[in-house]
Design goal:
about 350 residues, alpha/beta, about 25% strand, globular, binds NADPH dihydro-nicotinamide-adenine-dinucleotide phosphate
Length: about 350
């Protein structure tokens, strides 16, 4: 029996339970070249909110009635493929479902030996690669520079800041509550972390960035960007990785149009503001994996996961992700790991 979550209607603003439906289906036979999987860990990631919208983006939306998109680590339970055998552990974009049947080209074997499986969805997976690719191609950190990272306790931000430390930058994190702030500073080893929900945030950030900001890693937009923006040094680099504060289409329609000022300062301060999507750098995937794995094994990359159990809790957990309820990489556990 496969249980899957389909997109029933497109959310307007925050995703609601009624936008989704859990369906069950019996899978009796698999075709040649296909495998049947048991999902162990499903990754929930902010990009999924974009897939729920119609309209132009860097990727196609999920069609109404289709299973929601998502990457997962699974075990092969039945195989009619020459590439995979029963028992193999695989990773692929197999969606929000418990027992998918997928074509062999959609998955690959997980090669992380002696490392927790769920890490293939976080620090040693797509979010970790995002951090590596944005840092090496756009941020280009130099020793002594100041790097500010938003959503610092999360899957991407935590790796960005730790890479910043490896490159000997002064790293300032920004996070949404005191617990996350302490974790970023004390456990991840950032030089400082500030809670953007405190009244003195803007002033505190200014004090923490006495030499200005050379790199701002944009994960959120909104008030964090507003606070960092006046602190940019000449030639600052701004990898635009995400804008999570806007994913539920929460735009302030009354806000002043600051685009002309932003463009002007981009010119006079010679800023480099560049959006990027991790999947556009397939040629760097292996390099990123090698580096991240080696840093991880040498104790230079620490991580935290927020694990929620059960397919029925996916929608609620996803809503929380867009409000900062998760603390660390959000993972849905759908089955026990094999021994
Ligand atoms: P996280 O694990 O960091 O979880 C999301 C975090 O964002 C929350 O914990 C919360 O942290 C913060 N957040 C949520 N809602 C808001 C809000 N309304 N305003 C401000 N902050 C908010 O997620 P990821 O690390 O997976 O993703 C971080 C960013 O990176 C996202 O924007 C995502 O879309 C982007 N991304 C981009 C990729 C690319 O290829 N360009 C690939 C992967 C991710 P807090 O409580 O601290 O505010």
């Amino acid at each position: 029996m496969n249980r899957k979550i389909i997109l029933k209607s497109r959310p307007q603003g925050e995703p609601l339970d009624e936008n989704f439906e859990i369906r069950e289906e019996v899978v009796e036979k698999i075709e040649p070249g296909f495998v049947m999987l048991k999902t162990i860990y499903l990754s929930l990631d902010p990009y999924m909110r974009g897939r729920m919208n119609a309209g132009r983006s860097y990727s196609k939306p999920v069609e109404l009635g289709d299973v929601m998109e998502g990457e997962a680590v699974s075990q092969v339970v039945e195989s009619d493929s020459e590439k995979f055998s029963k028992g193999d552990i695989v990773i692929g974009r197999t969606g929000w479902q418990t027992m998918p049947v997928v074509y062999q080209d959609k998955i690959e074997k997980v090669e992380l030996k002696g490392i927790p499986l769920s890490l293939a969805l976080g620090t040693l997976g797509m979010p970790g690669r995002t951090a590596y690719i944005g840092m090496t191609n756009i941020a280009a950190p130099k020793e002594g520079e100041t790097l500010v990272v938003s959503a610092a306790s999360g899957a991407v931000g935590s790796v960005v800041g730790q890479i910043g430390k490896i490159f000997k930058c002064r790293v300032i994190g920004v996070a949404g509550n005191e617990e996350k702030k302490q974790y970023v500073k004390d456990y991840l080893g950032f030089d400082e972390c500030l809670n953007y929900n405190t009244p003195n945030f803007v002033e505190d950030l200014k004090l923490a960035c006495k030499n200005g900001v050379d790199i701002y890693w944009e994960n959120v937009g909104g008030k964090t960007f507003d606070a960092v923006y006046p602190l940019f040094n000449d030639f600052a680099r701004i990898p635009v990785c995400g804008m999570i504060s806007m994913y539920n289409n929460e735009f302030d329609k009354e806000a002043e149009d600051r685009l002309p000022m932003l463009f002007r300062n981009t010119l006079t301060w010679r800023l480099r503001i560049q959006g990027f999507i991790v999947s556009e750098f397939p040629e760097q995937k292996q390099e990123a994996m090698n580096k991240l794995t080696s840093w991880f094994k040498n104790g230079k990359l620490k991580y935290k996961e927020d694990v929620v159990e059960g397919l029925e809790n996916v929608v609620e957990a996803f809503r929380g992700l867009l409000k900062g309820k998760n603390f660390g990489k959000l993972i849905i556990k759908l089955a026990d790991e094999p021994n």
